[in-house]
Design a protein that fits this description.
binds D-glutamic acid; peptidoglycan synthesis; 5-stranded parallel β-sheet; Asp/Glu_racemase_AS_1; EC 5.1.1.3; 4-stranded parallel β-sheet
Amino acid sequence: MTNSSTILVFDSGLGGLTVLREVVAARPDAHYVYVADDAFFPYGHHSEDEIIARVVPLMGELIGAHDPDLVVIACNTASTLVLSHLRAAYSLPFVGTVPAIKPACAQSKTRRVSVLGTKGTVKREYTKALIRDFAQGCEVTLVGSPELASLAEAELSGTSVSDDAIRAELAPCFVGEAMGARTDTVVLACTHYPLLLDRLKKLAPWPVDWIDPAPAIARRVSDLLGARSTGIVQSGAEMIFTSNRAHGLSATLTPFFGGRAVA
Ligand code: DGL
């Protein structure tokens, strides 16, 4: 049996599970450590300086404790800010999650695309540069949602969230009225939002394509890891909350870990 690689997947909370599930499907041979920095959630409400000061040293501690082969920053709010700092500070590969503006604009037929992210992500220079470089003539509407990540956490934890609460966060994404000249593509620029995808589809005023970058991130991780380890049927998984709370969500979380029991 060959040793399996350890992949550390990091988010402010449970949103990164939507990236984790794609990575696990692509690399069932790896060992997973999922870290939710819930003690500092939501990142979208913190300043840029606060997030850098929080994530860079915390990542050093996590690398020291878990010795991962690769880290996935499964959070747009952090990736659009700290990736360059992390790469400068630590020598292992980091794969980030950033708004999928390029593929969204490439596929939009009406040339109207909305980017739904946290207030932090839509303000970032990184996001504005993606629009400058890749909008390809599309009109891009940035929508900073104050509460959708928290609503997704609540829903996954079993608290029911009203249609009106979701609709209020979603409404600004839908621009224009005439059939051929209204938004037809929405970028899910926060990893929490795919947790609510069924609700988003149901509550949207008209059908659109929802762009989730998770499958592309999983392909990138798999490419970086190289050939799969042989002889390993399934490696283990751990879940860590920085608040040290007991999660009590095992049955809910197991599918995101490809069915493995989560320590
Ligand atoms: N999951 C995070 C993201 O992709 C954000 C949630 C938060 O505000 O902490 O942006």
